[in-house]
């Protein structure tokens, strides 16, 4: 079973982060530049305090009445973040994402963010694992005929 650590070793450990005082516009520009759907919001000591995603922007900006140039990301970010440890399996992450209805999981080792996995990363890893299993079964069946 593949773990989050395995997934990050193939995908990369980079994570896009901002401080809570950054504007929504800065977050959106950074997300577009880095081609990611979310940024982890960190305090000065690098402790995560939230996550800001495209979903946060789409659902919460209608209520605030401010423009994204002046609105700090801390006003729209999701404060209750669900994190995983690198030892969690891809299957556990899929179940967690499904049950909690989240698309991004920051990966914490201690109090430090070491990566970010998305639902796309998880689905890709599960498909790869299933394709390997199918290939092995086909090879087994063809060699026993």
Radius of gyration: 18 Å
CATH topology call: CBS-domain
| Name of the CATH class | Alpha Beta
Beta strands, count: 5
Order of helices and strands: HEHEEHHEEH
Task: Supply the number of structural domains.
Answer: 1
Q: What amount of the residues lies in strands?
A: 15-25%
CATH superfamily: CBS-domain
What's this entry about, in short?
The protein has helices spanning 4-11, 24-34, 54-64, 90-100, 119-144; strands spanning 17-18, 38-42, 48-53, 104-109, 112-118. By secondary structure, the protein is α+β, with helices and mostly antiparallel strands.
Keywords:
145 residues, alpha+beta, CBS-domain, three-stranded mixed β-sheet, two-stranded antiparallel ribbon, 18% strand, elongated
Descriptive overview:
The chain has one domain (4-144): CBS-domain (Roll). With 145 residues, the protein is α+β, with helices and mostly antiparallel strands. Helices cover 46% and strands 18% of the residues. The chain has five helices and five strands, in the order αβαββααββα. The chain is elongated, with a radius of gyration of 18 Å. The longest helix is centred in the C-terminal third of the chain and has 26 residues, at 119-144. It has helices at residues 4-11, 24-34, 54-64, 90-100, 119-144, and strands at residues 17-18, 38-42, 48-53, 104-109, 112-118. A hairpin with a 2-residue loop joins β4 (104-109) and β5. It has a three-stranded mixed β-sheet. A two-stranded antiparallel ribbon has the order 4-5.
């Amino acid at each position: 079973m593949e773990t989050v650590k395995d997934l990050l070793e193939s995908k990369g450990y980079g994570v896009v982060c901002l401080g809570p005082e950054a504007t929504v516009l800065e977050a959106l520009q950074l997300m577009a530049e880095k081609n990611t759907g979310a940024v982890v919001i960190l305090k000065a000591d690098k402790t995560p305090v939230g996550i800001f995603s495209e979903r946060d922007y789409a659902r919460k900006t209608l209520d605030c009445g401010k423009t994204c140039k002046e609105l700090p990301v801390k006003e729209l970010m999701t404060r209750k973040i669900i994190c995983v440890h690198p030892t969690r399996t891809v299957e556990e992450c899929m179940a967690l994402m499904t049950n909690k209805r989240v698309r991004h999981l920051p990966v914490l080792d201690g109090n430090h963010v070491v990566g970010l996995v998305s639902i796309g990363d998880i689905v890709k890893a599960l498909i790869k694992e299933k394709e390997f299993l199918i290939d092995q079964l086909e090879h087994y069946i063809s060699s026993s005929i």
